[in-house]
Structures are given as C-alpha cells and as structure tokens.
Amino acid sequence: MSEDHHFLVQQIAKGDKQALAALYRAYERPCYKFIVSRLNDPHEAADILHEVFMDIWRVAASFEGRSQVRTWIFGIAYRKVIDVHRKRGRVTVTDEVPETGDVAEAADAGYAAKQEAEHLAFCMGTLSDDHRSAVSLAFYEDMTCAEIAEIAGVPEGTIKSRLHHAKKLLLHCLSGRIKGRAVA
Amino acid sequence: MSRARDLIELDLPFHVNGTLDAEARAELDAWLETDELLRAEAASLAIIRDEMQAEEVRSPGEFGLARLMRDVGREGAGGGAVQAPSRTWIWQAAAAVAVIGFLAQAVLMRDQAAPQGYELASAGVPGALVVAFAPLATEESIRGLLVGQGLEIVAGPSALGLYRLDVIEGGDLEAASAALRAAADIVESVENAEN
Questions:
Q1: Where does chain A hold its CATH 1.10.1740.10 domain(s)?
Q2: Are residues B43 and B113 in the same domain?
Q3: Residue B147 belongs to domain spanning
C-alpha cells in the first residue's frame, strides 16, 4: 500500500491528475477528519483539505520518499491548520492539568462516557491544538509515536508528554461533565 | 519492569492503539496486571479511541474531488495560484461537475456508440428545468431539495450561473417544479427549458 502511494506521488509529480484523484480518494476522509477535529468548522475544514491536495499537486516533485506518504500528507495538513489558528489569533484553550480531582474517579467516569460522544466532542474542544492533534493522530489514525512526532516536527518525548497531559485533561473534563449531568 | 511507572504510563496511548513494539508492549502488559489505576486509565483511553473511531464525519468526498480537479485543471491551464471563489459557488459547481460526470458515465454504459469525453455533457443540452440557486443557499440545502424532489443537475453552471435539472426516471416534473418555486430561499428562479 505504502509503495503504491509513493508511486502515486511520483505520478502526480509528472502531472498525472488521475494519480492525484487516487491519492485523494485514499486520504481524503482521514485527512478531513483530522482537520475538522482541530477546527470544529466543517466548511473551513473542507477548504483546508482542498488546499492540502492543491499543495500536493504543486509540490509532489519535492517529495523525496524518505517519509511515508501518509505522514507527509498529514504534515501538510498539520501546518495548514496551524496557519489558520495563527490567522485567527487563537489563544490556547487549556494547557494546565487540573490538580484537583481523583484520576481513578475520572477514569471510572470514562467508562460511563461510552455512549457520550457529545461529551467527548466537547472535551476535545477544550484541548489546545497541540494536544488535540496528538490525540487525533493517535486515536483516529492509530499512528505510532514516531509518525506523530514527524508530522508535528517535535521529538517523540514531546508527543508522549502532550498525550499524557491530554489524557488527564480529557478524563478530568469527562468526569466533570458526567458528574454534572448526574447531579442535574 | 525495567522502566519506572511514570515512563511506562507515557506509552499507554500507544498500547491502546496497538502501535507499541513487542518489547514495550510486554513491559506495559506486566504493569497492567498489577496496577489497577493504570488498567482503569487504559480502559478509559480505549473507550475514547473507540468513540473517536466510530464518529461519523461527512467529508467532501466526490464533491471535493470535483473541486480539486477543476482547480488543478485551471492551474495547469493558466498557471499561478488559484483564487478561491465563494464557498456556495464552489459547492454548486462541484455538485454540477460530479453529476455531469456520473451522467456521462451512465450514458456511455447505455450507449456504447456514443462519443467519449466532454461532448456528452454538452450534446443536446439536457434538462427540463433551468434554475438559478440563491447565492446564500448551501450545498446541503440544495442537495436536500433536489434529492427530495427526485431531481438531478444535468448541466451547468452556465456563464450566468444557471443550472439545468431533470427528474430522475419516474419522477413528477410538475410537482418538482412547483416545489422548487416554493423554495424561494434556495432557488431564485425556475423556468421550463426550451430544448
């Protein structure tokens, strides 16, 4: 599969639109899911997805094949969304892990969240873009730590740290929302 | 258990998504057997991952591909950066391109002697209705209206932004036409086509 996608990129570099269409069909959905998870705006996410594949069309010749096609594409998407956040002047939403609360209790609350997709979506929305990106790539895409680090352009240890904090924040948020609903 | 717990814990997400190598996985498995809190966290992360993977996302799909092919074609022909038109126009154009592509394919399959390529889309100017969509109508609202009335875009947009519609086989053209006229927030004008 990976070799096929390398071949597609080589063909795109030669101006093959059908190869671009094939690559689009292979990555459009996961890439869009990744983008929309960070923007919370499906229309803007569609525009960014379009820009990602336009960039692929323009710069395919520069792809040297040292990384996987998937990480290359997600890397482009990653940077595009950062640009959007910069233009928006977005402030990091949450970076501090709350000291209060019992992690074990929060973990139990996570079980109760099984059918609570809306709670999860809300809590994902409270994370900073760095945290959200790491969670999306780890859990939507099942990427390795090395792949996520390559996409984000940071050391693997940073990704592990981001995921660790994101996990605490998510469990804490889920715990609070589920408790709140139970009380109400 | 050669690593400390706090280091092991950092691998938990990758244990959950199944990307840890065998050695790290075995090490974490050993911790999970004895550490109840770690087990609870792993279970919670697994639920979060399952929830995220089950999440339905409506991606642009073939509409997005039509838009991409159009802009790539423009860039190839004219060179330079492509200006992004308004979103509504993009969706309408993309929808038209996608439907035309589908129609062309269907005609090819039905009539092997038919000429190939773009000639099919323009030959004979198909469509029973000529409509203009409201500038602020969304792709979703347009699609909902057309699907609900058994209509499809068979040509357009023209230079004036007009689309030609036809009823899908067995559809009621008069009823569909009336429904379009009633949806003033989506459709600006409806006329019967003069072929």
A1: 2-88
A2: no
A3: 65-71+83-192
Domain membership flag for residue B50: yes
Distance from CA of A46 to the nearest CA of B (A): 6
- Return the residue in B21, B47, B86 with the most chain A beta carbons within 10 A, the one to mutate for interface testing: B47
Q: Does the domain at residues A103-183 carry the CATH identifier 3.20.20.70? A: no
With CA atoms as reference, the chain A residue closest to B84 would be: A47
Helix-then-strand count for chain B, H and E:
9, 4
Task: Give Cα separations from B162 to B93, B96, B176 (angstroms).
Answer: 10, 11, 17
Whether A28 and B65 lie within 8 Å, measured CB to CB: yes
Residues B144 and B183 in one domain: yes
Cα B190 versus chain centre, distance: 26
Give the separation between CA B52 and CA B18, rounded to whole angstroms: 15
Instruction: Give the residue on A whose Cα is nearest the Cα of B20.
Output: A144
ipTM of the complex: 0.81
Kindly list the distances between the CA atom of residue B71 and the CA atoms of A151, B65, B130, B160, in Å, as whole numbers in the listed order. Answer: 26, 10, 25, 20
CATH architecture for the domain at A2-88: Orthogonal Bundle (1.10)
The burial of A47, by beta-carbon neighbours within 10 Å (0-12 exposed, 13-18 middle, 19 or more buried), is given as buried
Contacts of A147 (CB under 8 A, 6+ apart): A68, A70, A71, A137
Q: What is the pLDDT along chain B (195 residues), one digit of tens a residue?
A: 577 888 899 999 999 999 999 999 999 999 999 999 999 999 999 999 998 988 888 999 999 999 999 999 888 644 433 344 444 444 444 454 454 444 445 444 444 443 333 333 334 567 788 888 776 667 777 878 888 888 888 876 654 566 788 888 777 888 888 889 888 888 888 888 875
Q: Which residues contact A111 (CB under 8 A, 6 or more apart)?
A: B43, B44, B47
Q: How far is A14 from chain B (nearest CA, A)?
A: 12
CB contact under 8 A, B45 and A110: yes
Q: Coil, strand, or helix at residue B165? A: strand
